[in-house]
Amino acid sequence: MLVRVLLLGSGVAGWALLLSTTAWAQAPVAETLAPVEVEAPAVDSARYRESVAADRVDSTAAMTDVPGGALLDNGGISGQTQYRGLAGFRNDVRIDGMGITSGGPNWMDPPLHYAPGAMVESLTVTRGIPSVADSVDHIGTVVDATTKRGDYGDGEDYAFGGRLTSTLRSVDNGHAVGGRAQVANEHNRIGVTGVTDQASDVRTPFGRIRASSHDREQYGLDFAHRTARGETTGFVRHQNTGTTGNPVLPLDIDFFDTTLAQLDNESTWGDTTVESRVSLNHVEHRMANFKLRPAPDFSPLNGNKRDPRFIRARSQGYGGEIDVHHPMAGGTLSGGLDGNFEQHDARVGNPANDAFFVDAFEGIRRDTYSAYGQWEGPLSERWNGELGARYTRVVTDADDGGVAPGLPQPAQNLAAGFASADRRRTDDNIDVVAQLSRTLSERWRLHAGVGRKTRSPYYLERYAYIPLEATAGLADGNNHIGDIGLEPEVAYEFNLGADFAGQRLTFSPQVYYRRINDYITGVPVDDTPNTVDSDIERVSAVNGDPTPLRYANVEAEIYGADIAASYIINADWQLDAGAGYTRGKRTDIDADLYRIAPASGRVALTYDRDDWRFRITQRYVAQQRHISDSHNDVRTADPRTAGYALTDVSAAYRVTDRVTVSAGIDNLFNKGYRDFLSGFNRVNDSDIGVGERLPGAGRNAYVTLDARF
Q1: Distance between CA atoms of 433 and 141, rounded to whole angstroms?
Q2: For 485-494, what is each residue's pLDDT tens digit?
């Protein structure tokens, strides 16, 4: 399959990037705007990947163009991925192959927070079951953002080049400037990058969303060196995120101060290929509830006084991996080792009272050691197969924690109980994936996969000993408390698909079923008197939620179907479409899983001729009736959302070989709507009432200038 990512400008907020997907298509298509061609793995395997161009300030928004994908919008640059019902840390989300350790307990900086749209070439999502070689300690998909790194030169002499992009947006008065400059010859390249994007509050047909502005800057250095034997690449990036709103969360970003670094090597020794990588990231973070919003009065016990709070957090992540690939039995035998080491700390404070503190997470360690083996290749003329297994050991631990001496006795009891507990846990997890594909004819191919994937509990789920609304961005309005004794999730998945590739029409439907044993979710805390749970409820009530949830192991299932399709009308016109449906349920009781995207579809018609390109896209989102009663705060309005349809239009003109101007309008008809995956407003003095689900952005006009030199 050939995926053509049509680059029509590289702005952060208003990039007009169009996706044209053709699988084995033979009809000619005009491509005068110089597409970047990405050769993806064959569409006929269960490891099919679809490259999606990031076209918004938050690269995660590209997930809405993936059949079965969705965006959890927790703030302008804090979006999380969802694919086939799994979100957050259940998916393996990377930047240039590097895993990112989030800096805070509320995931205001999910991994793609560090991939500004201006620096992203494409977003690639694994469709089906990821191979054991591609994913460690995750039960969901693999999402990888590939950033712009430039090309090598043509000879020994060094040449200077670069790219500059500028974008303006109307819906939030946003602007962005991103650029790259490099020197390169045929063996070496070194480049510097920089991007800045800012915006004020988002406007909607229902009014302005207070605390929805953002402020982000990133700059970096990268290099590459290649020889006849292989290539070495690396980068160092630093990002400063300034005061940025998260209106569905109890606090906003005060700052992130983050450094990312990675070094990769790929070399060939005879028939054997060796890949290795080391990476690190360090995050300093503070969040606050009084910078962009009025401090709330969330405790009825404090005499109707404001309750300003901040959380100061620090996270570090170090990783290393090595993979070896060698031909065997007509295919490729692969094996490798992976290690990842994380540290987390977070302290809750009151700027008006230095004596108040809660060491909510202190000295958290989460170390992962993993090894795998896999064979992939042809079994016969028409059959291809893959079989792999991975063993992973996850070791977690935490220091004592602690609360200020002046806090009430229930809080002291919870802290003392946690300090006296055995907090070290070791999980031994086994993943197995088997996949088969068969060519039926020149046009048709079938593929199927089965897998057992595992995920150990995230540190919040095990070590949150005080009930707080620090939930990695669940945005459900509930305080949660952890359980040290949680078991790892074990997902058994089946995936079946077919691929048809005609001269004009291509389509690829898939169906899937996933049974998850020991699925981790929040359940109501036991309200039996004279128990530890009574202390939990007392502390939680002081923190604004009298009905907290506890992370627990339950039984669950997720199933659904999605399809991607394309039809080439003629040399100038092409139609693309995609749709997905996901259903998530608990199987131990009659209940729905929390925050599962409703059915959705997308149809896009593109006209492409000479130096012009026009596109109109129609998006459809169905009503979601399946609601998790325990997670949607009873103090909010009806959590159900109506279906809606949005229309987007865009155009691009290539002024010269090096300059492209693009423009467009999102939500052309200024439709008022509320996406089911959006959380509920937590900010007072906003045009949107407290407890109302946040509406989507109104009409947004944008223009982008992209210049290469």
Answers
A1: 13
A2: 999 999 999 9
Cα–Cα distance for residue pair 349/468, rounded to 1 Å? 13
Chain centre distance of CA 255 = 20
Instruction: For 409, list phi and psi in degrees, rounded to 5.
Output: -60, -40
Sequence-separated (6 or more) residues with CB below 8 Å from residue 258: 103, 109, 114, 238, 239, 240, 241, 281, 282, 283, 284
3-state secondary structure 12-64: CCCCCEEEEEECCCCCCCCCCCCCEEEECCCCCCCCCEEEECCCCCCHHHHHH
The three-class DSSP label of residue 410 is: helix
Tens-digit pLDDT profile for residues 203-220: 999 999 999 999 999 999
Beta strands 549-568; 480-481: pairing state:
parallel
- Average pLDDT in the chain: 89
The kind and range of the H/E element at 551 are strand 549-568
Residue 516 CB contacts under 8 Å (≥ 6 apart), including other chains:
139, 489, 490, 491, 492, 555, 556, 557, 558
> 573 in helix, strand or coil?
strand
CA distance 140 to 116: 23
Q: Residue 326: pLDDT band by 50, 70, 90 thresholds?
A: very high
For residue range 556-571, what is the model confidence (pLDDT) as tens digits?
Answer: 999 999 999 999 999 9
Is the separation of the CB atoms in 216 and 196 below 8 Å?
yes
The pLDDT value recorded for residue 7 is 28
C-alpha dist (Å) from residue 337 to 133, 326, 368, 475: 10, 15, 11, 36
Query: What are the counts of helices (DSSP H) followed by strands (DSSP E) for the chain?
Result: 3, 38
Sketch out the chain's domains with CATH numbers: 2-708 (2.40.170.20)
* Spatial distance between the Cα atoms of 347 and 468, rounded to a whole number of angstroms: 12
| Residue 628 pLDDT grade (very low, low, confident, very high; cuts 50, 70, 90) | confident
pLDDT band at 36 (very low <50, low <70, confident <90, very high): very low
Distance in angstroms (rounded) separating the CA atoms of residues 92 and 489: 15
Distance CA 432, CA 372 (A): 10
What does the block give as tokens for 492?
A: 């058994």
- Contact (CB, 8 A) for 134 and 126: yes
Q: What is the DSSP letter of 117?
A: G
Tell me how far apart the alpha carbons of residues 549 and 527 are, in angstroms, rounded to a whole number. 11
Contact 402, 414 (CB under 8 A): no
Q: Residue with structure tokens 């006929």? A: 44
How far apart, in Å, do the first and last CA atoms of the chain sit? 31
Long-range contacts of 199-203, Cβ-Cβ distance < 8 Å, separation of 24 or more: 199/13, 199/57, 199/76, 199/169, 199/172, 199/173, 199/174, 199/175, 200/172, 200/173, 200/174, 201/172, 201/245, 202/76, 202/171, 202/172, 202/697, 203/171, 203/172, 203/697, 203/698
CB 208 within 8 A of CB 247: no
Residue type, 629: D
Among 498, 493, 490, smallest CA distance to 512 is for: 493
pLDDT surpasses 60 at 30: no
Alpha-helix runs per DSSP H in 422-531: 459-463
Read off the tokens for 82.
């969802």
- For residue 685, the 8-state DSSP code is T
All residues at 6 or more sequence positions from 178 whose CB lies less than 8 Å from its CB, including other chains: 10, 11, 12, 116, 118, 119, 164, 165, 193, 194, 195, 196, 197
Burial classification of residue 44, based on how many CB atoms lie within 10 Å of its CB (0-12 exposed, 13-18 middle, 19 or more buried): buried
Tabulate helix, strand, coil % of the chain (nearest 5): 5, 55, 40
Q: For 389-489, where are the alpha helices, taking DSSP H only?
A: 409-420, 459-463
Give the gyration radius of the chain's Cα atoms.
Answer: 25
Given a cut of 70, whether residue 528 has pLDDT beyond it is no
Decide if 487 contacts 518 (C-beta within 8 A).
Answer: yes
CA distance 674 to 691: 13
